[in-house]
Structure formats: structure tokens, C-alpha cells
Amino acid sequence: MHLGRCPRCGGDLHCHSVSYFNTEAICCDCKTEQRQLPGFAAAQAAEEAAVAGGNLNFPGVGLTSSDRDMMAQLIAARHSKVGGKAESG
Ligand SMILES: [Zn+2]
Question: How far apart are the C-alpha atoms of 61 and 24, rounded to whole Å?
């Protein structure tokens, strides 16, 4: 089973979920990290409000430029960690 690559960090989607911000299928690392983004609370609230209102296809509020900046920093920090966890494919 091959699900492709995470659109955010390029990692394998061995473990994936859908972002609160949009409809991208992202990896679990990105899902964890997106909780740190400045817009996360609002994105989650909007998603939950939409679902509560019966809109199960809510496309998300999208990522602001500050969210994207933070995400890029988090992904860069993750990739800069060198040591035991080498890419094994
Ligand atoms: Zn990712």
C-alpha cells in the first residue's frame, strides 16, 4: 500500500490524517506540528462548527502566511535533526 508523499514535508504517508486547515492528507508528524500554528485553534473551531452544522465536506479555513511560516520552520527543524533516525525508505 503506497499512499504517496505528504504535501507539506514530503514524508511518507505511512501514517496520515486530514488537516484541520484544508483538505490535504498530511502525515502524522505534520498533524502533530500543526497544533503549534497560530491559526490552529481557529481552524479547528471552524471545522468543528461546520461538522456540527452538518457540513461534513468543510474545506477548511486555509493556512495564513504566518501559519505557513511556522510550519516551514517546524519542518525544517524536524529535518535538521541528525543522528539515529536516518531515512530507511
Ligand atoms: Zn508531513
Answer: 12
Domain ranges of the chain: 16-80
pLDDT tens-digit profile of 47-79?
999 999 999 999 999 999 999 999 999 999 998
Which residues are placed with Cβ below 5 angstroms of ligand 1, an ion?
Answer: 6, 8-9, 11, 27, 30
CA distance 71 to 30: 8
Note the pLDDT of residue 81: 75
**65 class by beta-carbon count within 10 Å (0-12 exposed, 13-18 middle, 19+ buried):** exposed
Neighbours of 39 (CB within 10 A): 19
CA of 7 to the centre of ligand 1 (A): 7
Name residue, grid cell 543522528. Answer: 83
Residue listed under C-alpha cell 471552524: 46
pTM of the prediction? 0.79
Distance 5 CA to ligand 1 centre (A): 8
